[in-house]
Structures are given as structure tokens and as C-alpha cells.
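Q: Fold this one first, please.
A: Sequence and structure below.
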Amino acid sequence: MKLKKVMALTMAGAMAATTLTACGSSSSTTETTKAAETTAAAAADTTAAAAADNGSSDAETVLQVAFENSISEPVGQGWEKAQEIIKEKSGGKMAIEIYPDSQLGDKSSLIDSMLLGENVCTLADGAFYADYGVPDFGIVFGPFLFDSWDQVWKLVDSDWYKEQCGKLEEKGLKIIASNWIYGERHTLTNVPVNTVDDLKGLKIRVPSNEIQSKGFDVLGATSTGMALGDVYQALQTKTIDGAENPLATLYGRKLHEVAKYLILDGHVKNFTTWVVSADWFNSLPEEQQTWLLETAEEAGEYNNEVQQAADAEYLQKMKDEGVTVVEPSEEVLAGFKEKAQPFYEMGADFGWSDGLYDTVKKAMGAE
């Protein structure tokens, strides 16, 4: 997508220069022709550089993987690993191009592209899938739902989860992996937060979906939906008072430079999923579908190793760079969990099935 735009600009520049040559006097013809050649060469260099940056190739099938995060974060490293894996599996027939830092737009615009059948992929979660027609999926992003990662993986392996994936595919979106740890989501603010009561009235940035918005509102904060790329400036100008995300993202986006208080509340154990157009996926030969699914799964395992190793490093870096870190006691966390419970009584607001909370708790082994 990006490369096509660069190539179009290259052609436009060359054509414009050629037109000037045809219309100009004979004395300027040579100079104008040289300018056209220089413009074309420079744009060609830019195209080549862009191809090298995102891993573009001449493979017969290409998937453009785009996300709002930095390439230096574990998810970025995971997809760099995926490039190697799929090249080996497919013998070069398939390739992955990587577009970090919102280069192809935000999550919602990428998902809209998928619904048009485009060959793009992004990370998304149950909260977004709830907004795209599978309401029960949203519960996986509820505050303080999981007590351990073991409960997360048990739920992902359950029949209930498979049913939700099937419903999502009927809506046009195909999940290709659900085993990526994005991290425990913590809260970074520009004023101290030591207990759940300290969140009262604070404007906290959340991704733009209903589940995460109401999940933070119920804790006493005022949620503010916003694209990740806009958060740094919003914190800097005090348009918002804080943001929540895993440590890798908070540090990767340098948000700690403009908000100096971090509470390790772990309000969501955020496993993420990678999603593509169902129409695009189903158009692939079965062999290519298998290569892609296996690649996404194996890259997820690599991501998890990187993510777990990086968390301690990110936390120490934030401390070294002046962030005050609060590690809440079990008593304080109990206060957060108690405050969150009314969220699970709002099922009718989200269009949830009757008894969904109990169904999910049973599926993850926490009856």
C-alpha cells in the first residue's frame, strides 16, 4: 500500500518533468531531462528503502501487518520473526510486510479495510470484536476478569472461545492467532494514584471501544477514547490525565516522559489476537492458510519470550527515568476488584448472552 503510493509519486514526478521538457525552449531541454532523471532516481531509492524497511518482496502472496505500536516492542519483534518463519515455510511464496507506528492508519480503519477484503492484518481484542458484531467476545477485556495467565489460556482453548471466533468469521474477520501476550495493562498518570479511589474524575485514555471505556468508568475514572499515536501530545498538554497499557507500550511510546506516576494494577491480562479479512484468508490455497496459521502461532511463542523478558527491563528503565512506581498490596488490589464488579452486571448494556459471566468463569476454570 505504502510502496504503491511511492511508486505513483515517482511516475508523477517523471511525467511532470517530461511535460516541462516538451513545452520549454531547446536551451533548457537537457537540464530539465537531467532533473527528471534525478527525481526518478531519488524516488526509486526511496521505494527501495521502504521495501527494505517493511520486508516487501516479490512473493506471490503478501500480508501487510500493521499496528500502532513501535517496531521495538515485543509485538514488532514477533512479526520480524514471523517474516523469517513464513519465508522458510513457504519457500518464498508468501511474505509479510510490517508497518508499525500507525503507518497504515489506526486499528479501526485497518479493520474496515479487512471488511473490504484487503490483505491487511492487525492486532485486536475482544473489546473491538464486540463493537464489530460479536458482543459476548467483549467480556475477555473486562477489568480484573482473570486471576492468572493459566486461566487465560484455558479460556482460549475452550469451546466457548472457538464459538466466538466462528461468529466473528461470519462477520468477515478471521483470527489467525490468539496466543500472543500483549502484557498486563497498568495505569500511568500525571498525578499520584495509590488506590482505586484516586482514579475518581481522572481522564484516562483508553482504546476507542465501549468495553474498555465502561471498564474504566466503573473504576471511577472518566475514560477518553483516543488513537495511540495521539496520546503523548494529549498527556503533554494535559488534555488527559493518564493512559493505560502494558509496560512495553507505555515505554515504547515514551509516555513516561510526560506522565510520571505508574500503578501496577494489572487491570487486564491482555492476550492479543491477530486478525485478517475472512474473505482474503479463504481465498488462499489451503497450503498457504496452514503456513500463515502456523507462522502466527510460532511467532506468538517468540513474542511471549521477548515480552516476559522485557517487562522487568522496561520497569527499571522507567524508574531510572524518574517514574514513581506503586506496587499495590493485595488489599489495595482487592479494592480495585470490588470496584470493578458492577461492570459484570452491565451485560444487557453490551448485548451479552444471559449468564455470560458465569459461563466464562466456568470455561476458564474459575467457577
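Q: Good. Now the second chain.
A: Here it is, same layout.
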Amino acid sequence: MSKIRWGVLSTANIGRTQFIPALLRAKNSEIIAIASRGSKAHEVAKEFNIPRAYEDYNALLHDKDVDAVYIPLPNHLHKKWVIEASKQGKHVLCEKPATLTSDEVIEMVQICREQNVKFMEGFMYQFHPQHDRVKEIITSGEIGEVKLIRASHSYYMENRDTNIRMRKEMGGGSLYDVGCYAIHAIRNISHSEPIEVRAHSQIDLVSGIDLSTHGYFDLANGIPAFFDCSFDMVRRQEYEVIGTKGTIRVPFAFRPDFNGHVGLVIVQTTGSTREEKIHGDIFLLEVEHFSNAILNDTHPINSGNSAIYNVRALEACYESIQAGALVKV
């Protein structure tokens, strides 16, 4: 097998605008099927020349020619369809957050292992090479000893009456939607896990979801970290690493595709500022990484424990918000 044959569950916007085009660009992948609840799959299949369109998710999962599926469904549906896909022998790339509780992620990961299929949570941002460059700079000692990490992800949400991210029962809220990126970036860059969390939210009185959340982590390696996320602020997608000798700022951390796929790493030390521009097609890199893991029988990043740990951190944030207190992870 030289290419992984993909199916996509749903006609979600992220799939149509980003993931399917990435599949079409990938050297080791091809898309052969798409499914929707209703007839929209036929429209999308025609748009992208996808050979097969199904009006039922299970019908796609029973297609024996499909090797892997991409699941961009609403958050509360992730567990069900990851499990259903794995039971049909499909490898699964599921959009973030993997699901809504750590118990659910543990169950999903365990079933995927039992079915001998690969599972990966879709944090596409991490495939951009700018983040490896940040780690290289930290390791080099240029900014000294790391003393603090800050991460922010926000945008101002329009059309709130119709947006599923405003529906609590579907896993809505800024923490699940964009805060999960900031938390993942802190974990990814620090190579450490939060052991204590303090978080606070501005709650929408009608829907009950968090419009904005900000929080503090104590990491296991002793580094403190702050994060914030919001549906109520201007678009920001950045993190900063502060050391004893300087700082590293990454202003296009999570969606460098909004900047022509160009990431920017800004290093500032006493009397010196340097900017490094780094190109990377995050959705293409994500697709090819997961397909290569299947083809070569290797472990994809963000599988198993990483997905569990990220959702545990989210859970701890929500627990802290409800309790109004510091919470151990």
C-alpha cells in the first residue's frame, strides 16, 4: 500500500476548507469517501471529486476500501464515532478536543488499541516547524533558564445564536474550542504536565458556556504557566516563553495558515531582537504524519497518553472554575 485511503465523517467547515484540500495535496493519502446525515455529502463529493458519498456515517465505516477516517464532528459526538470507526477497523484522526472527559478518552484509546487501529487527536498546529525551532532555542540556552510560559487563543464570535460552540450540551465554550490549544502548547513546549490549576471564567448567562477563561498552572518541572482563551476578544493565537536572559514569542502559533503558512519566532535578549520566518503547511503535515504512521506502523504523536493528559487538564480547569479554588490535576 502506497497511499492511505481516507473517509471523512460529516461536511463540517474545517473539513471542507482545510482537511480535504490537504488530503488532495498529500503524497501518501487520498480521499475516497465522505458521509453526512442527509444529502449534503453528494454536494461536497462533487465539489472535490470524491468518488463515494454516503448519507449515513455507518455506511462509510462499513466501506472496506476506507483505511482511515477523519472526524470533525461536534465535541460531544467524538467518543461514539471514534469507537464505531475503530470497531470497523478504521484508523482515526479525531478533531480536538478528543472528547469531553478523561474517562471517555481512556475508553476510546483502549478500544482503538484492542482493535489494533491508530488514534490521534487533531492538534494540527504542532506540526508547524516553528515549534521545533522554539525548542531548539530553549535547549541552546540563548534565553537562559525558562521561568514562565504564557499562551493565548481568542477570537470574537459572530452569529452566536446559531453557533454550536455556544451549546453547552454539545461541548461548547471557549475552553474546549480554543483554550485546549493554549493548554496543549504549554504542555508541548515545556515537556511537562500541570499538577495544579487555578482557573476563572466569564459565563454566558443564557447558554451557560464559558465565553472567556483564564488560568494558572504549576507544571511538574517547576515552571509556572498562564493561559487565556475567549470568544469575546480580538483574534490572538500566540505563546511566549520567558527566560532569565531573554524571551521567545510566537505570534502565529496556532493558525499560521492565516499568515500564508508562515510562522514567526521572535527572540529578544538584552540589546538584541531577532525574527525568524518559518514556512509550514500544518494540515498537510498532519495528514502525511498520520498516514505515514499507518503505512510504517509507527506511533503518531498526540495519541494515547497525550490526548488523555490534555483532557485531564481541561477537566481540572472546569473543576477549578466551579469550585472557585486551586485544583490538583
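Q: Anything worth noting on the second one?
A: The chain has nine helices and 15 strands.
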